[in-house]
Task: inverse folding
């Protein structure tokens, strides 16, 4: 998979001064658009669209300083409909407008071209299984929250803290399918996975029981799931699990992510220092692998 990702990066470089079609990138990587966006954001720490924007403005910045063409000609080449739109984007990345940068020779910000490599440490084994599931229902309390790539998601923390404890205990008793117990479910994420875009967060259970008053039911279609488990210090063990799934498991196995909710069950010790976690991700088999 990493070789295919690098082919997609090369495709981006060839088309920085024209449109970049994510469908073409996915074909270059021999995968789906959904999995390409998911893998890229996990490995690079930024959405694919943000990387393309930053690479374009890096190359455009060099041309601004070179002084060979007008600022409008550069703006149009790199996909901006007006000099004003180009100036706003340029300043947002470089901290200075293109005109001032050309006059003063200001130092600009550079987004390096990304190359993906797999480092095999062999220090631990990843425990996983692949399960085919019939359709099931997530029932729980729902909130629309922003996507946060690093650090705690305060919106989710505040939402969960505000839930009625008695109602949560009643909900927990309805759990009758795996993953058992209360789970955290993220669904309907923006395809770009850009920081600050919104998603549906459910704090609930997998159950066949009718949804209690005040809760929301999410019907999940049948499909294949990769199930990963880990135990260790909290929250490091869970954060490392997410990292290892995308940096080690997907590149080494014939599966790709597919649209669907992402489900995490976490059991903390009484003092909150250690966790047993189970992560369910919707997957499909890669063709040709």
Result:
């Amino acid at each position: 998979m990493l070789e295919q990702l690098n082919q997609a990066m090369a495709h981006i470089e060839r088309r920085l001064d024209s449109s970049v079609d994510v469908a073409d990138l996915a074909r270059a990587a021999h995968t789906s658009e959904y999995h390409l966006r998911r893998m890229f954001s996990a490995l690079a720490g930024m959405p694919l669209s943000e990387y393309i924007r930053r690479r374009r403005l890096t190359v455009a910045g060099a041309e601004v300083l070179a002084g060979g063409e007008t600022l409008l000609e550069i703006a149009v080449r790199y996909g901006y409909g007006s000099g004003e739109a180009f100036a706003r984007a340029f300043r947002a990345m470089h901290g200075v407008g293109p005109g001032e940068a050309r006059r003063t020779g200001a130092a600009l910000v550079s987004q390096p071209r990304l190359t993906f490599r797999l480092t095999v440490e062999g220090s631990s084994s990843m425990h996983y299984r692949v399960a085919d599931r019939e359709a099931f229902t997530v029932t729980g309390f729902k909130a629309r929250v922003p996507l946060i790539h690093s650090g705690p998601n305060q919106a989710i923390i505040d939402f969960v803290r505000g839930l009625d404890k008695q109602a949560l205990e009643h909900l927990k008793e309805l759990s009758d399918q795996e993953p058992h117990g209360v789970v955290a479910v993220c669904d309907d994420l923006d395809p770009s996975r850009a920081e600050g875009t919104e998603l549906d967060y459910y704090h609930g259970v997998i159950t066949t029981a009718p949804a209690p008053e005040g809760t929301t039911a999410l019907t999940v279609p049948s499909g294949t799931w990769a199930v990963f488990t880990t135990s260790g210090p909290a929250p490091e063990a869970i954060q490392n699990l997410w990292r290892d799934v995308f940096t080690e498991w997907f590149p080494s196995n014939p599966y790709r992510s597919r649209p669907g909710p992402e489900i995490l069950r976490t059991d903390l010790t009484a003092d909150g220092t250690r966790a047993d976690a189970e992560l369910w991700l919707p997957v499909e088999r890669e063709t040709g692998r």
Notes: Strands lie at 127-133, 136-146, 183-187, 198-206, 216-220, 223-233, 255-257, 262-268, 274-285.
